[in-house]
Each structure stands twice: as C-alpha cells, then as structure tokens.
C-alpha cells in the first residue's frame, strides 16, 4: 500500500479539533474540560507526520535502495509549510491589534525541528544491518522508548520551573515516534518481516480502538490532566496528560494502517481529500481570525471555522499551489538545461 486515504480524514479531524480547542481558550466554552482537551489534534498531526515522513526510509531499508535524499525532502517540506505560514504572519501583523505570531510560532514552527532531524534519525534507525525480524523488533523497542520521552520531559520541565521548555522538540517527539513506529510495523507486517499477531485483529475493529481513545480523552478532561487554559500544570498533571495523549493518538492512527472498506469510505473519500489539502491553512489562519473577532463560543466557533476555511482555500488556490507548481517547473527546466542532460556531440 503506497497511499493511505483514511489519513486524510484524520488530518481534517485534527484540524477541526485544534480550532475548537483554540476558540474554547478564547471564550467561556461549554464543557470546558472536553473542549480544551481537543488540543489533542496537535498530537494527531505529529503522529501522522511521523508515519508519512518516516515510512519512505523504512521502504528504502527493506528494499535495499538509497534512502530519500535530504535536500529534496527539505525542499518539499519548505514548499508545504512556508507559503501559508508567511501569509498568516503578514496578515497577523497587519490586521490583528495584538499579533498572533506567538501562537503561530507554537502551532507551525514546533514540528520544524523534527522535520530537520528526520533525515538523520531515519538513517540511524534503518542502517547498519539487514532488516531481519530481530532488527525490526529492536527498532520498534527504540521507538516505543521515544514515546515515553515526551511525558517524562513534560514532567521534568514543570518540576524544574521551566514550562516554556515544554514547547521544545522532546516534549513532542513521542507523538512523532508513535507514527514512526506504526510506519515500521506496517511495512514489516506487509513484507513478512513480522508475523501475524493480535494487532492484526485490532485493525479490523476500528470502532473499539476509537472508543478507547474517546474514553481516554474524557479522562484527560478531568483535573487529573491539569488546567483547561494556559496555566502551568503540576509535574504529575503534565506527565499524565502527555502520556494519555500518546495512547490516544496511537489508538486513533492504528486502524487507518490497514483500513476497512467502511473506514476508507468515511475518512478517505473525495470530500476528505479536498478538506485535507486545506487543513494546514485552516490551522494557521484560525489564529488570525481569532484575533479579529469577539463574542461567545457559539458565535466565534462557526465564524472562525468558516473564515479560516475560506482563507485557507484562497491561500491554497492563489499562493500554495502556484508556488509548488512553479517550483516543479523550475526544477524540470533546470534538469533539462543541466550539462549532464545535454546531448553528446
């Protein structure tokens, strides 16, 4: 399987969850606990990125081919992230009395250290030996260990009085590692490096895993996982919240690796594909919209959603897609005119 259509639906769900949680932070939202914990959408985005970006490294390892080239990979990441980010920052500075650039930095720049680290991390985890069953299991254990890093880091920075360090990569690396571990498991399982297990059964009952994820999210909605705003949690609260989010994203992502036909229809249909293209823009532009409007939760939520979708669609059509197309054309022309492609005389 080279494409995972149900992942598109997860992107849309994650973006919607993030918008709802951010509107809740700006208003007196009903069910404040549940609404605030929808910031789990950030964790879902991280896990999806870890899965999609690490999987090519695993495929190259298993096939004995070269891993993805670093410069083209970084170029594609920059083309995907920077156009909408720059537009959102400019709009924020020009339109918002108190620019939302701080929020935009949290929302968009947090994954960048992971994107920069991934080529080296991918080579480290897929090199040095053949992809045997033993080597695959060892690397899965390493990635499982990385999932624990996030909760431990969050607890440590709260305990030592440095909550701002919670925005650093170690606080989020565990969520990326969830996706990376699932990429390794999926390829190893599809190629026979790993044999059948009870995990295969779980992929056939997605409702069970998603029900577990919902139940765990309700647990985080209690004070056990900390305050519902930007107040500093205790070390124990930070540990519990990060750990539960890690399990939630694992339960959410795992069923889409080998989705049922119904899962593909619901999460991978044409509407989900179109919405997924706008999900990044919606997350970026919602901070600008929130800086321009005021009112109760019931008013701000639909207005923020609608305005963010419109801005994301315009941005995608007029900025993001043309930038990608022009870059592709320039790359093609560069190859055509390079000395190595010139005909011999």
TrEMBL record:
User: Would the keyword Acyltransferase be found if you checked this record's keyword annotation?
Assistant: yes
TM stretches of this protein: 12-34, 40-66, 78-97, 103-126, 138-159, 165-187, 208-226, 238-260, 272-293, 299-319
What UniProt keywords are attached to this protein's entry?
A: Acyltransferase, Membrane, Transferase, Transmembrane, Transmembrane helix
The UniProt entry, under InterPro entries, shows: Acyl_transf_3_dom (IPR002656)
Please list the residue ranges annotated as the Acyltransferase domain.
5-312
Q: GO terms for molecular function, please?
A: acyltransferase activity, transferring groups other than amino-acyl groups
| Protein name according to UniProt | Acyltransferase
What is the species of this protein?
Kribbella soli
């Amino acid at each position: 399987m080279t494409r995972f259509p149900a992942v598109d639906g997860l992107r849309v769900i994650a973006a919607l969850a993030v918008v709802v949680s951010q509107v809740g932070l700006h208003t007196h939202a009903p069910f404040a606990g549940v609404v605030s914990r929808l910031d789990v959408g950030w964790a879902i985005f991280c896990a999806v990125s870890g899965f999609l970006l690490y999987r090519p490294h695993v495929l190259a390892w298993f096939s004995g081919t070269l891993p993805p080239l670093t410069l083209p990979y970084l170029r594609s990441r920059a083309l995907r992230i920077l156009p909408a980010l720059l537009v959102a920052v400019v709009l924020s500075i020009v339109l918002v009395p108190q620019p939302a650039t701080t929020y935009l930095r949290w929302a968009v720049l947090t994954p960048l250290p992971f994107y920069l680290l991934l080529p080296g991390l991918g080579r480290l985890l897929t090199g040095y030996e053949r992809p045997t069953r033993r080597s695959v299991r060892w690397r899965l254990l390493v990635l499982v260990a990385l999932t624990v890093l996030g909760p431990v880091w969050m607890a440590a920075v709260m305990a030592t009085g440095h909550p701002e360090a919670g925005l650093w990569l170690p606080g989020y690396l565990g969520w990326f590692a969830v996706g990376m571990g699932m990429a390794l498991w999926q390829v190893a399982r599809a190629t026979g490096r790993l044999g059948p297990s009870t995990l295969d059964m779980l992929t056939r009952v997605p409702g069970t895993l998603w029900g577990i994820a919902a139940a765990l999210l309700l647990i985080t909605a209690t004070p056990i996982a900390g305050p519902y705003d930007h107040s500093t949690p205790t070390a124990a609260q930070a540990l519990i919240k990060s750990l539960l989010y890690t399990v939630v994203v694992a339960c959410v992502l795992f069923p889409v690796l080998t989705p049922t036909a119904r899962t593909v229809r619901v999460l991978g249909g044409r509407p989900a594909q179109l919405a997924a293209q706008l999900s990044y823009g919606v997350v970026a532009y919602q901070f600008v919209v929130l800086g321009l409007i005021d009112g109760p939760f019931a008013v701000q939520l639909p207005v923020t959603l609608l305005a963010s979708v419109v801005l994301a669609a315009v941005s995608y059509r007029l900025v993001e897609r043309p930038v990608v197309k022009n870059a592709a054309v320039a790359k093609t022309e560069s190859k055509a005119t390079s000395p190595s492609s010139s005909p011999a005389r």
